[in-house]
Design a protein that fits this description.
Elements lengths: L8 H11 L6 E4 L17 E4 L4 H13 L3
Parallel strand pairs: 1-2
Length: 70
Amino acid sequence: LTVPQGKGAKEAVKEIKQIAPYAKIIVASGYSIDNVFPDYKIFGFSDYLHKPFTFYDIETMLNQIFLKKY
C-alpha cells in the first residue's frame, strides 16, 4: 500500500475522507502481509480486494458496498 515517491493508501484515504466523509474507498493489493487488510475499516476503507481478482469479484464487492444501509 505504498506508492514510490508519493503518498501511500493510508495517507490518501485520510485526505479523501476529510473532503468526502461518505466516500466509498476500496483498497487492492497483491501483498498478503500488509497489516491494513485485517483492519481495513479502521483505516477508512470500505472494502478490500486481494490481487489477482476477477470482474466477478469486483462486481460482488461493489454490490455489497453500495447496497449496505448506513
